[in-house]
Amino acid sequence: MEFHDGFPDYETLAQHSDAEGVGKRKILMNVFWLLLVVTIIEVVLGFMWPTMEKSGLSKTWLIVVFIGFTVFKAGYIVMSFMHLGHENKWLRWSILGPYAVFVIYLAYMTSIQEGIYAGEPDHRSLLDPVKEIHQNSEAGHGEHH
Questions:
Q1: Structure confidence at residue 135 (pLDDT)
Q2: Which of 12, 87, 94, 143 could join 8 via S-S bond, C-beta 3.0 to 4.6 A?
Q3: Is residue 1 part of a domain?
Q4: Containing domain of residue 48, as a range?
Q5: pLDDT at position 133
Q6: Does residue 144 lie in a domain region?
Q7: Does residue 139 lie in a domain region?
Q8: How far is residue 136's CA from residue 130's CA, in Å, rounded to a whole number?
Q9: Does residue 134 form part of some domain?
Q10: What per-residue confidence (pLDDT) applies to 42?
Q11: CA torsion, points 131, 135, 141, 145, in degrees to nearest 10?
Q12: Regions of the chain with pLDDT less than 50
């Protein structure tokens, strides 16, 4: 016993043998290495972006790649560490489906709806309508005197 505390070994608590523990740790390390490689690619792309931008790549391309990598990593973590990958297809989709719809909604809101502010000469009134009402009432109050 490793800690001499009277508790059974890890393998006994987990109810699997040493060989099964080796297999589980191998899967864990494969997940770690895959996520590490994806993260390194993201960091390298971030550092190389100024030179890539000069070659004609748009910033939209970089944003799409980063969002794609982030969604991939999040999905892989959910499938691996939260054991969703071992469930049946309908349970997976009932959990991941609402998140997918939410991500599509956020993409729509940031790409379509946020562009409305760019066309407004005074976009501050769109962001804070209460402030605009207050400013209009002050302006109207000053004209009456």
A1: 62
A2: 12
A3: yes
A4: 1-82
A5: 63
A6: no
A7: no
A8: 10
A9: no
A10: 92
A11: 150
A12: 1, 144-145
| Residue position matching structure tokens 């489906």 | 97
Cα(109)–Cα(103) distance, rounded to whole angstroms? 10
DSSP track, 113-145: ITHHHHT-TTTHHHH-HHHHHHHHHHHHHHHT-
pLDDT for the residue numbered 33 = 94
Q: Given this model, what pLDDT does residue 51 score? A: 85
Within 13 Å of residue 43, how many CA atoms lie on the same side as its CB? 6
Half-sphere exposure of 115 (CA within 13 A, CB side): 5
Q: pTM score, two decimals?
A: 0.57
Q: Which residue is associated with the tokens 């302006």?
A: 139
Question: What CA–CA distance (Å, rounded) separates 10 from 16?
Answer: 9
Q: Which long-range contacts (CB under 8 A, 24 or more apart) does 23-32 make?
A: 27/80, 31/76, 31/80, 31/81
